[in-house]
Amino acid sequence: MVSVAGMTMMLVASAGCTDTPVADDTPSRRPAPPSSSSAPASSGQPDEGQVPVAEPPELDQSERMAGQQPETTGSASFSFAKGAAGDALIVAVRCRGAGTMNVAVRTVSVSFPVRCLAGGTRTLFNQVGLSGAEEPGSVSVTAPSGVHWSMTIGRGELPADDQQ
Q1: Structure confidence at residue 12 as a pLDDT band (50, 70, 90)
Q2: Spatial distance between the Cα atoms of 79 and 151, rounded to a whole number of angstroms
Q3: pLDDT bracket for residue 163 (50, 70, 90)
Q4: Of 126, 117, 122, which is closest to residue 94 (Cα–Cα)?
Q5: I need a labelling partner for 107 at 20 to 30 A (CA). Which of 76, 88, 139, 146 fits?
């Protein structure tokens, strides 16, 4: 979990955690030191079994879907629905193809890079709990044409130790 400028963002790799870095920017499962920048770093690891990008990431049973983008190549934007008061916003990204995509959620002034892999699929989940996270909004992705991605936006509760 990274706390940046009064916001809480939890970064969770979907599967296959190891202590060995996958790419030069991929941290191991050891926690990263807090960042002082306004754009938190992303983390993620290749999925075991290479889940196809055509299948947007699935949420946990306790989480509710607010929006979804099927497999997309390059840049695009899509909208997501309003949540209940106090809901955290979950941004689940799956990508494949060499390049870095930038994800921006303007409603909560959060953006983060995702480094995608040429030979593997990467899935990561970001959970944002801050004022305004329950509002409807849109996600904008800027990505090279060779990057294929899908995304699920969800709503859920922050873990008890993260609630302020």
Answers
A1: very low
A2: 11
A3: low
A4: 122
A5: 146
Angle at 83 between CA 80 and CA 84, to 5 degrees: 175
Amino acid making up residue 116:
C
Q: Which residues are within 8 A (CB) of 43 and not within 5 positions of it... i.e. 6 or more apart?
A: 11, 13, 26, 27, 32, 124
Average pLDDT value for residue range 60-67: 95
Using the Cα atoms of residue 35, residue 41, residue 45 and residue 47 in order, give the sign of their dihedral. Answer: positive
Q: What is the pLDDT of residue 2?
A: 37
Q: Mean of the pLDDT values across residues 107-135? A: 92
Burial 9-44 (b: 16+ CB within 10 A, else e): bbbebbeeeeeeebeeebbeeeeeeeeeeeebbbbb
Residue count of the chain: 164
Q: How is residue 49 annotated by DSSP?
A: T
CB-count exposure of residue 5 (10 Å: 0-12, 13-18, 19+): exposed
DSSP label of 53: T
